Here is the input.
Amino acid sequence: MENKAIPASEGISIAKVFKFETVEIKTEKTVIKNVEEALSDLKKAMQTAVEEVIVIRDHTQKTMGVESAAIFDAHIQIIEDPEIFNEVKTTMESESYNAAYAYDIVTKKYISLFESMEDNAYMQERAADVKDVSKRVLAKLLDIDLPNPLSINSDVIVVAHDLTPSDTAQLNKQYVKGFITEIGGKTSHSAIMARMLEIPAIVGAKKIVSQVNQDDLMVLDGLTGVYFINPKPALCEEYKEKQTEFLKEKQRLKTLVNEKSITKDKHQVEIAANIGSDEDIDSVLQNGAEGVGLYRTEFLYMNSSSMPSETVQFEAYKKVLESMPNQKVIIRTLDIGGDKKLDYLEMNEEMNPFLGCRAVRLCMEEIEIFKTQLRALLKASYYGDLHIMFPMIATVDELIEAKKVLKNCEKELIEENTPIGDYKVGIMIEIPSTIFIAKHLAAHCDFFSIGTNDLIQYTFAADRMNETVAYLYQPFHPSILNMIKMVIDAAHEAGIWTGMCGEMAQEYKALPILLGLGLDEFSMSPSSILKSREAIRSMDFKKAQTLALEVLSYKDEAEVLKRLEEEENNG
Ligand code: PEP
Ligand code: MG
Here is the structure.
């Protein structure tokens, strides 16, 4: 049977299902007779848990380095901690409790003790570690399988209720051929990551987890959002052919890698890449990007088990800048909050996290975190054409305050005799308020980049993570198009350029309108660059301007889309 949900990342995969389910472990109190035997089971469970952690540690060390792997050494120490073991043993001997129950209550005691030390970030981290370890040992003791993305060692399609951005970051591209989740929309971060990793993906596939079994065969078409569970061989063949076609087309576009993004009547724009890690640079270069238009640095933080140091950050930023000589690299400061969390940073529970203490707001609260990043960026500025970008700016004051912190960091570094290169400062335009004060913001900026993912969410008051309101993600709506025009015009009047790094920049159908509105730079996942460049090279700028002006006065998205369709049919 054909099923359809939201296409999130292009490409076709045919592989077995790997169900990624979060498991809640509950223990029950029973009174046992043979404590010796129960203790020996516990020791065995602890030993197997240690062996499992060693595998994860070694893998992490290979893929993410020694620093990230260190957390797993701490996990081994907790499992082997004699104090915890003796306490469990005493509880079992004195109360005749079963091992799982005794282990659960003892570890819970430590967890709440550490958690109660609210001001101590180190202890908070230890609480998270004990929780993780306890779950692993209990799962072994109770014979429950925990999903482990690192254990994937053959081709699979990951099926999950949701994948957090850090779950997604852990997926091994060598084996994970696609993923499909129950929740999320086109602009949720796991969807964005899938596009960056070039993993075909579908989101918003309600109830998919209960519809499939582990190892079912699945066909996933990330171009249309169609998927099949245990399809007939003929259908698999059909999709294998589609897959070959898709890959051939990708190959054909490679001839455009060194070409300019220029229209037939010689209007030139730039097509840059969105990245989430310095490891994405290969794909950026292979796809002929004319710069990096958005480096989402939060993934550097999410892939780490503790706050990345100034040096770790400096090295990552420097690597990207050095890989793109003579091209601009826009590095966005930490945009955490909303759907992006850090295991090691305690954040207040918020009713509406997307409207809460997110991005630059959080950085101004956690000033030391902000300063560490800004210092790393300024140091890296020496190695390329760095553009620093602040996310989620809503007012001129916020921008001025953020720039003050930047200037203070610069002063500090100069006093320390650290070389600093030329750099530019800009902001994301992603909160509706900024559209109307764009000229005032432009006075303090070298560039703008429009973040349509958030701009659309805030304009339509529709959570970008909620598939039920996904119909309100309407990039072609005249309200959005008019906002884009206002920003571009205000920027040009102030003599600065405007790019777009939201997902709309890679909506193929939006290209003529954005071009016609005067957008200077389009930033997108590397895999979309060449197709967009080919389209722009076939366009006429004057014609695009007329079309863009015309649709601004339309009533709704449907009218705009209809007009675009007519345009396409008329060639
Ligand atoms: C956006 O909001 O459009 C954007 C590019 O930022 P993010 O998706 O990371 O919020
Ligand atoms: Mg945003």
User: Anything to note?
Assistant: The pocket of magnesium ion (ligand 2) is lined by residues 391, 430, 451, 453-454 (CB under 6 Å). The chain has 23 helices and 17 strands. The two ends are 36 Å apart (CA to CA). Residues 35-64 form the longest helix (30 residues).
